[in-house]
């Protein structure tokens, strides 16, 4: 079996033991060390660690002091956490369609979703490739919107040399399957000193110094035990990303030109960090996406459908007045055709060849 993802945190052992021996196991010096390393990866002065990526999104929106009815524009083709965070923070979600080329928000569709209640633009840098920030940033400026980047899948990705999480308020996930993991965890990145300060106070029950409360806060803290897991990975992030890139290139070289199969595009000016390697199974393919997925599973090739449906297209959101569904034909089509293949850094060249030949076999190519 070739798994779709592999977790490797073994070189964190010395740091984890250091935490255990220190007796400081909740938020302490290791979180600070992790934050400093993360801030430099994201190219910003501040990284605020929190207990997961969803919390990072919630806290970022909460810090903006929105009013009920204020709106966030995001993509319908994302993990459910993007939507759940908007709802938990009390805002209303609107959706603009995506581009089938990079799977991200299509800037041309965003203007049509702006209303006089829109306050936030929340692009998701899906699969590890950044959204078209060259056009989204001016759009946000034109409409007076704050950018919150859901960078959960894009640690280390860049757009014209600028890292994910440095264009707006950056929100990262450190969940077990993400490119960098602390088992569970999240990070908020910002260049805004006052915002970073507010998030740090909010994270710790609204407390600046012991029992001095400045706001109704929360417990959003990450632990030193978790931070210790992430530090060695941050140190070798470039190596890990290079391995993912090598694997993606091998897959694309092997799968390019197969009729009915579209390999993922890397757009000019963008450094893709390959959280997922996602192909499209077109209408002209000899099999459907679901048939391909089943056949690959049979052959022992891990694969994943991220995501089978649009995020708002579930009964639990149907009657929610904070969820404003819209017509998004491109995202609808992509949700029917997208399939992710293994691209994680542990793949061997032999496994890459097996993945390529198995897919080609199912396509009869
Ligand atoms: C993983 C993920 C999140 C949520 O992160 P958690 O750490 O699991 O809470 C949010 N958005 C996207 C796009 C994700 O992939």
Automatic annotation (TrEMBL):
Its EC number is 2.6.1.-. InterPro entries: DegT/StrS_aminotransferase, PyrdxlP-dep_Trfase, PyrdxlP-dep_Trfase_major, PyrdxlP-dep_Trfase_small. Keywords: Aminotransferase, Pyridoxal phosphate, Transferase. It comes from the Bacteria. SUPFAM superfamilies: PLP-dependent transferases. Its cofactor is pyridoxal 5'-phosphate. The keyword Heme does not apply. Signal peptide: none annotated. It is an enzyme of class 2 (transferase). It holds the Pfam family DegT_DnrJ_EryC1. GO terms for molecular function: transaminase activity. PANTHER family: DTDP-4-AMINO-4,6-DIDEOXYGALACTOSE TRANSAMINASE, TRANSAMINASE. Belongs to the DegT/DnrJ/EryC1 family. This is DegT/DnrJ/EryC1/StrS family aminotransferase.
């Amino acid at each position: 079996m070739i798994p779709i993802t592999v977790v490797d945190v073994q070189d964190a052992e010395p740091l984890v033991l250091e935490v255990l021996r220190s007796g400081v196991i909740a938020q302490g010096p290791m979180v600070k060390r992790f934050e400093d390393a993360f801030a430099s990866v994201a190219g910003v002065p501040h990284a605020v660690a929190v207990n997961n990526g969803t919390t990072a999104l919630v806290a970022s929106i909460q810090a903006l002091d929105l009013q009920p009815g204020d709106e966030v524009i995001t993509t319908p083709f994302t993990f459910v956490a993007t939507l759940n965070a908007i709802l938990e923070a009390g805002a209303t979600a609107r959706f603009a369609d995506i581009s089938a080329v990079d799977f991200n928000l299509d800037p041309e569709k965003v203007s049509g979703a702006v209303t006089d209640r829109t306050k936030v633009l929340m692009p998701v840098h899906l699969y590890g490739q950044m959204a078209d920030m060259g056009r989204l940033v001016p759009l946000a400026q034109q409409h007076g919107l704050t950018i919150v980047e859901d960078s959960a899948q894009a640690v280390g990705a860049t757009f014209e040399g600028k890292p994910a999480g440095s264009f707006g308020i950056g929100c990262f996930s450190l969940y077990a399957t993400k490119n960098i993991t602390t088992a569970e965890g999240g990070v908020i990145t910002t260049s805004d000193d006052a915002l970073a300060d507010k998030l740090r106070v909010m994270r710790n029950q609204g407390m600046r110094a012991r029992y001095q409360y400045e706001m109704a806060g929360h417990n959003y803290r990450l632990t030193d035990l978790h931070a210790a897991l992430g530090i060695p990975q941050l140190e070798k992030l470039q190596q890990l990303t290079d391995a993912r890139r090598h694997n993606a290139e091998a897959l694309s070289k092997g799968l390019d030109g197969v009729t009915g199969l579209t390999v993922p595009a890397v757009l000019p000016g963008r450094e893709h960090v390959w959280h997922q390697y996602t192909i499209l199974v077109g209408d002209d393919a000899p099999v459907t996406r679901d048939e391909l997925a089943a056949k690959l599973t049979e052959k022992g090739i891990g694969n994943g459908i991220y995501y089978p449906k649009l995020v708002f297209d579930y009964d639990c959101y149907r009657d929610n007045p904070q969820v404003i569904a819209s017509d998004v034909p491109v995202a609808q089509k992509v949700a029917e055709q997208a399939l992710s293949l293994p691209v994680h850094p542990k793949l061997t060249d032999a496994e890459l060849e097996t993945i390529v030949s198995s897919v080609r076999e199912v396509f009869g190519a």
